[in-house]
Amino acid sequence: MEAGRRSIWIICLVWVFLGGICSLVIAEFIRNHSADEYVDYYGSDVFQNAVSVAETSLTVLRTLDRSDNAPCSAEDLEAMRGVVFAAPYLTDVGRLRDGYLVCTGIWGELATPVKMPPRSQVVGVNAATLWKGARGIAPAGLAVDMSSFGNSVVMTAPTAFARYEDPAERLAALVLTSDASYSYQSFGDTEGLAPLLGSNSDWYRIAQRRVYSRCNDKIDVCVVATYDAPALLKTAPLDFLLVLAGGVSAGACLGLWHAHLYREGRSWRQKLERALNDDRLTVHYQPIVRLSDNRICGAEALARLVDFDGTLIPPDHFIPAAETCGFIGQITRSVVRRAFTDMAAHFAADPDFYVSINVASEDILSLEFLDFLETETRSHGLSAGQVALELTERSTASQDSLTQAMAAFSRRGYRILIDDFGTGYSNLAYIARMPIAGIKIDRMFTQALDQQAIGAVIVSKVCELAAVLEVTLICEGVETKGQADHLVAIYPDICIQGFLIGRPMPARQFSRAFPANHHAWTPSPSESAG
């Protein structure tokens, strides 16, 4: 008992732990998704802006390079002023001569040309020459980014990237070339960003750093942006605790459910084990009557489990538990021994009387059960034909192996009946190949006889199948004389079983109601009256 309680506690604790872990993992995925959306929005904005600046600069340079105006002429200066006012990302444009800036759209022709920075600071990108943060060119000593093509030069406005210069905490972006050899702009802490070019964060990968990376197909401009997402516990401790509490609660609920199933299975195992050890498994019998001559041709043995307080536990409760716990074979053997003993007088009085015993597919597939059945049959002085084995149609999933095993029982003379016919999923081809001696129609079709025409059609078709297969047909759940009359009209040799004949009853009551020396069933006056 102590071991059982300990196992239940372990089950609950494991589920609580798993619930907490799963909740945190889910929270991390949600955090990553939010962080990815954040860095994607930021990186995409930087990228679009960088591409616009580059395209504007290149377009202006090519336009000036193709101009027919004489450099620094009045017409040329007027055209350059128009460009400066029209281009949103440029602060000025000018002309170069022999490495000197000689005129600009804003300042006109310079009285003293300004020498451009030395070539050692020049990088060639997109067929243009770039200067980054060059001083001594713009007025007041301002650092300015410039690009030139031919004899034209453009100066990028300081405001072109102004809104990115002070990014939010944990955000960073790097505008660079596709080979990472030149950096146009950098915002935030960009150390280690260049190697991330070409990689993006996978949604399923839990990582603190989320990455956005993209390159333009036409011009050599790329952007790498990152966001170091903070831990949920640091940014929102209350949310973290709520998520954790939710996961733990869900885990606790699952743990209690699992513990309940474990305790129920364990209690059924203990209950079945004690019942079998205490010989509290009993058998009730329900008669089977052949309507053509009202002869009691057999009885079905139905297992009943007596609980501690003396109440009977229905088979639909303990049989599935017995199959799960591995006791079904032991129960089947107990029913066989009990039925052979209880029905001894009927066997002796009528060699054609048989007892029908429900078996599981595991029993049929077991050679040990066949040997056991042979031993019990001989020791009780019975013939194999006085024993019928009922196998539900739902038990025939592995039909090939089951058919072979059934053939072994059939060769020894035992009858094989398909129980609950019509409720399973085996097809007629398999049924036709099975070595069966009879078919039992499920009670739901019998009840449908009084309710709808389709019930009668189904029963009629099963009767035709039984006639073709030349097997016995038994209809379960017959409760009224009208149902019996309907069935015998459809199939004269049909056998019936149900409350019309008698309810399942203990062996002594069965012997009193249906004496061994009296094989005929006589309907009561009320039953005859219908």
Report strand %: 15-25%
Strand tally is 20
Alpha-carbon Rg, integer: 46 Å
> What's the helical proportion of residues?
40-55%
Number of domains: 2
> Given the C-alpha coordinates, what overall shape results?
rod-shaped
Label the structural class: alpha/beta
Q: Supply the number of helical segments.
A: 16
Rounded average pLDDT? 83
Q: What would your notes on this structure say?
A:
This protein has 2 domains: 1-278, no CATH class; 279-520, Alpha-Beta Barrel (TIM Barrel), CATH 3.20.20. Strand 13 (295-306) and strand 14 form a beta hairpin. An 8-stranded mixed barrel has the order 12-13-15-16-17-18-19-20, surrounded by 4 helices. The protein has a 7-stranded antiparallel sheet with strand order 3-2-1-7-6-5-4, covered by helices on one side. A 4-stranded antiparallel sheet has the order 9-8-11-10. Helix content is 44%, strand content 23%. With 530 residues, it is of the alpha/beta class.
